[in-house]
Amino acid sequence: MASSPRIILWDIETTHNLAAIFRLFEDYTSHENILRERYIVSAAWKVLGEHKVHSVSTLDNPKLYARDPHNDKHVVQTLHKVLSEADVIIAHNGDSYDIKFTEGRMLAHGLSPLPPIPSIDTLKVAKSRLLLNSNKLDYLARYLGFGK
């Protein structure tokens, strides 16, 4: 009997870039103005069908955090392992943001690219199949009766 596919529902939280600018209303800021690169602060995931929600944060590695509170290597390594073991991944705006941002951080930390993983992007599904007042995840959850 075949086992069920391992489906991971996941999300990341990131920081902003810190950049030096001359005026607030500038249309363009060069990459040379970046003072600190954005990074992944935390991530959470759940295996579909299981109750436990897992998470990882830059705070989880106290020694690394003490040396550099902006170092997301522990978070990125954990995500690399989790996502590599998935048969399918599901995220809201995952195709346009979460997976690309995460793979960019994996590259920065010298990790191998993820294997090809089929994904379901709930934002794409909402935009293409539904006509709702909003496609934000919070709105969808409330609309479908899951709460805030």
How does this model look, in words?
- This protein is of the alpha/beta class.
- It contains 5 helices and 7 strands, in the order E-E-E-E-E-H-H-E-H-E-H-H.
- It has a 5-stranded mixed beta sheet with strand order 5-4-1-6-7. A two-stranded antiparallel ribbon has the order 2-3.
- Strand 4 (40-47) and strand 5 form a beta hairpin.
- It is globular and about 55 Å long.
- The N and C termini lie far apart (38 Å).
- The relative contact order is 0.15.
- The model has no long low-confidence stretch (mean pLDDT 95).
What's the layout of helices and strands?
Elements: E1 7-14, E2 18-19, E3 34-36, E4 40-47, E5 53-57, H1 62-67, H2 73-84, E6 88-91, H3 94-108, E7 119-121, H4 122-129, H5 137-143
Parallel strand pairs: 1-6, 6-7
Antiparallel strand pairs: 1-4, 2-3, 4-5
